[in-house]
Amino acid sequence: MKHRIACLVVGFLSLVLSLQTASAAPVTGQRLNLSGASFICANQSQTGTCSIAEFDVALGFLSNAQGTWVANVSLPGGTVVKTLTLCGQFNEVGSSITATLDSIPLTAAVGFPSAVPMASIQSTGASNQTQCFTTKAITNATIDNKNTQYYVVVVVPDNDGVNFTSVQIEY
User: Which of 7, 64, 77, 100 lies in disulfide reach of 52, CB 3.0 to 4.6 Å?
Assistant: First the structure.
Protein backbone atom coordinates (compact mmCIF):
# COMPACT_ATOMS: atom_id res chain seq x y z
CA MET A 1 0.00 0.00 0.00
CA LYS A 2 2.84 2.39 0.90
CA HIS A 3 4.46 1.63 -2.44
CA ARG A 4 1.28 2.55 -4.36
CA ILE A 5 0.91 5.82 -2.46
CA ALA A 6 4.58 6.65 -3.06
CA CYS A 7 4.14 5.94 -6.79
CA LEU A 8 1.04 8.12 -6.88
CA VAL A 9 2.84 11.00 -5.14
CA VAL A 10 5.89 10.71 -7.43
CA GLY A 11 3.62 10.61 -10.49
CA PHE A 12 1.72 13.68 -9.31
CA LEU A 13 4.93 15.60 -8.62
CA SER A 14 6.23 14.69 -12.09
CA LEU A 15 3.02 16.01 -13.63
CA VAL A 16 3.24 19.28 -11.67
CA LEU A 17 6.88 19.80 -12.67
CA SER A 18 6.15 19.09 -16.34
CA LEU A 19 3.26 21.57 -16.31
CA GLN A 20 5.47 24.23 -14.72
CA THR A 21 8.16 23.65 -17.35
CA ALA A 22 5.61 23.79 -20.17
CA SER A 23 4.05 27.01 -18.87
CA ALA A 24 7.47 28.67 -18.60
CA ALA A 25 8.14 28.24 -22.32
CA PRO A 26 7.11 31.16 -24.57
CA VAL A 27 3.93 30.57 -26.53
CA THR A 28 4.28 30.62 -30.32
CA GLY A 29 2.03 30.14 -33.32
CA GLN A 30 -1.02 31.69 -31.65
CA ARG A 31 -3.38 34.47 -32.69
CA LEU A 32 -5.44 36.88 -30.60
CA ASN A 33 -8.61 37.98 -32.41
CA LEU A 34 -10.22 41.24 -31.29
CA SER A 35 -13.59 41.62 -32.97
CA GLY A 36 -15.27 45.01 -33.21
CA ALA A 37 -17.26 43.99 -30.12
CA SER A 38 -13.99 44.14 -28.11
CA PHE A 39 -13.51 47.88 -28.60
CA ILE A 40 -14.74 50.83 -26.54
CA CYS A 41 -15.01 54.41 -27.75
CA ALA A 42 -12.14 56.61 -26.60
CA ASN A 43 -13.29 60.08 -27.67
CA GLN A 44 -17.05 60.35 -27.18
CA SER A 45 -16.75 63.75 -25.49
CA GLN A 46 -14.94 65.24 -28.52
CA THR A 47 -16.88 63.63 -31.37
CA GLY A 48 -20.24 62.56 -29.98
CA THR A 49 -20.25 59.72 -32.52
CA CYS A 50 -19.99 56.68 -30.26
CA SER A 51 -23.71 56.54 -29.61
CA ILE A 52 -24.44 55.74 -33.27
CA ALA A 53 -21.97 52.85 -33.46
CA GLU A 54 -23.13 49.28 -33.01
CA PHE A 55 -21.80 45.80 -33.51
CA ASP A 56 -23.68 44.01 -36.28
CA VAL A 57 -23.89 40.42 -35.00
CA ALA A 58 -25.14 39.05 -38.33
CA LEU A 59 -22.24 40.49 -40.35
CA GLY A 60 -19.60 40.64 -37.60
CA PHE A 61 -18.47 44.26 -37.87
CA LEU A 62 -18.66 47.51 -35.95
CA SER A 63 -20.84 49.85 -38.02
CA ASN A 64 -20.77 53.66 -37.75
CA ALA A 65 -17.63 53.40 -35.64
CA GLN A 66 -16.40 56.90 -36.34
CA GLY A 67 -13.66 58.19 -34.06
CA THR A 68 -11.10 56.44 -31.89
CA TRP A 69 -11.67 52.97 -30.45
CA VAL A 70 -9.54 51.05 -27.95
CA ALA A 71 -9.32 47.38 -26.92
CA ASN A 72 -7.27 45.79 -24.16
CA VAL A 73 -4.64 43.28 -25.26
CA SER A 74 -3.82 40.38 -22.97
CA LEU A 75 -1.02 38.13 -24.19
CA PRO A 76 1.11 35.65 -22.23
CA GLY A 77 4.28 37.21 -20.82
CA GLY A 78 7.46 36.40 -22.71
CA THR A 79 5.73 35.82 -26.03
CA VAL A 80 6.91 37.66 -29.12
CA VAL A 81 4.44 39.57 -31.29
CA LYS A 82 4.97 38.68 -34.97
CA THR A 83 2.21 40.46 -36.90
CA LEU A 84 -0.59 43.00 -36.55
CA THR A 85 -3.54 42.63 -38.92
CA LEU A 86 -6.51 44.96 -39.52
CA CYS A 87 -9.60 43.57 -41.28
CA GLY A 88 -12.74 45.26 -42.53
CA GLN A 89 -14.73 46.55 -45.45
CA PHE A 90 -13.17 49.71 -46.83
CA ASN A 91 -15.62 50.99 -49.43
CA GLU A 92 -15.05 54.73 -49.60
CA VAL A 93 -12.39 56.16 -51.91
CA GLY A 94 -9.75 58.19 -50.10
CA SER A 95 -10.66 56.86 -46.66
CA SER A 96 -8.68 54.47 -44.56
CA ILE A 97 -8.55 53.35 -40.97
CA THR A 98 -5.53 52.64 -38.81
CA ALA A 99 -4.82 50.14 -36.08
CA THR A 100 -1.91 50.64 -33.68
CA LEU A 101 -0.65 48.24 -31.04
CA ASP A 102 0.58 50.34 -28.13
CA SER A 103 2.56 49.51 -25.01
CA ILE A 104 2.72 51.73 -21.97
CA PRO A 105 4.84 51.29 -18.84
CA LEU A 106 2.90 50.71 -15.63
CA THR A 107 4.98 53.32 -13.79
CA ALA A 108 6.81 56.58 -14.56
CA ALA A 109 9.51 58.47 -12.68
CA VAL A 110 7.49 61.68 -13.10
CA GLY A 111 3.84 62.15 -14.05
CA PHE A 112 2.18 59.61 -16.30
CA PRO A 113 3.99 57.18 -18.59
CA SER A 114 3.59 57.67 -22.34
CA ALA A 115 2.29 55.10 -24.82
CA VAL A 116 4.82 53.70 -27.27
CA PRO A 117 3.62 52.33 -30.63
CA MET A 118 4.77 48.75 -31.22
CA ALA A 119 3.15 48.36 -34.65
CA SER A 120 0.76 50.26 -36.90
CA ILE A 121 -1.20 49.31 -40.01
CA GLN A 122 -3.44 51.33 -42.31
CA SER A 123 -6.04 50.19 -44.84
CA THR A 124 -5.51 51.31 -48.42
CA GLY A 125 -7.77 51.59 -51.43
CA ALA A 126 -11.49 51.07 -51.66
CA SER A 127 -13.34 47.98 -52.72
CA ASN A 128 -16.66 46.40 -51.99
CA GLN A 129 -15.08 43.47 -50.18
CA THR A 130 -13.78 42.59 -46.76
CA GLN A 131 -9.98 42.74 -46.73
CA CYS A 132 -7.11 42.40 -44.28
CA PHE A 133 -3.91 44.42 -44.09
CA THR A 134 -0.89 43.08 -42.19
CA THR A 135 2.40 44.41 -40.89
CA LYS A 136 5.33 42.45 -39.54
CA ALA A 137 7.18 45.62 -38.46
CA ILE A 138 7.00 45.21 -34.67
CA THR A 139 9.07 47.26 -32.20
CA ASN A 140 9.91 45.84 -28.76
CA ALA A 141 7.96 42.71 -29.68
CA THR A 142 8.46 40.71 -26.45
CA ILE A 143 5.49 40.96 -24.06
CA ASP A 144 6.44 42.10 -20.51
CA ASN A 145 3.28 42.00 -18.41
CA LYS A 146 5.18 42.71 -15.19
CA ASN A 147 6.16 46.23 -16.27
CA THR A 148 3.91 47.10 -19.21
CA GLN A 149 0.28 47.12 -20.35
CA TYR A 150 -0.88 46.73 -23.96
CA TYR A 151 -3.84 47.88 -26.06
CA VAL A 152 -4.91 48.43 -29.67
CA VAL A 153 -6.16 51.81 -30.93
CA VAL A 154 -8.31 51.89 -34.08
CA VAL A 155 -9.01 55.26 -35.68
CA VAL A 156 -12.00 55.36 -38.05
CA PRO A 157 -12.52 58.48 -40.23
CA ASP A 158 -15.75 60.42 -40.20
CA ASN A 159 -17.54 58.54 -42.99
CA ASP A 160 -19.95 55.68 -43.50
CA GLY A 161 -17.99 53.68 -46.07
CA VAL A 162 -15.52 52.08 -43.65
CA ASN A 163 -16.44 49.22 -41.30
CA PHE A 164 -13.87 47.25 -39.36
CA THR A 165 -14.37 43.63 -38.43
CA SER A 166 -11.31 42.77 -36.38
CA VAL A 167 -7.74 43.30 -35.36
CA GLN A 168 -5.54 40.23 -35.03
CA ILE A 169 -2.25 39.86 -33.23
CA GLU A 170 -0.13 36.86 -34.09
CA TYR A 171 2.48 35.74 -31.59
Answer: 64
**pTM score:** 0.80
- Under the banding of pLDDT at 50, 70 and 90, the label for residue 26 is low
pLDDT tens per residue, range 43-79: 777 766 677 888 889 988 888 888 899 999 999 999 9
Cα separation, 157 vs 95, in Å, equals 7
Classify residue 76 as left (phi > 0), alpha (psi -120 to 50) or beta.
Answer: beta
- Rounded distance between C-alpha atoms, residue 30 and residue 139, angstroms: 19
The span from the CA of 61 to the CA of 162, in Å, is 10
Q: Which helix (H) or strand (E) holds 86?
A: strand 83-90
With H, G, I as helix, E, B as strand and everything else as coil, classify residue 46: helix
Q: What is the pLDDT of residue 22?
A: 47
**Position 89, amino acid:** Q
Name the β-bridge partners of 116. Answer: 103
Classify residue 41 by burial, with Cβ atoms within 10 Å: 0-12, 13-18, 19+. Answer: middle
Distance of alpha carbon 165 from alpha carbon 55, whole angstroms: 9
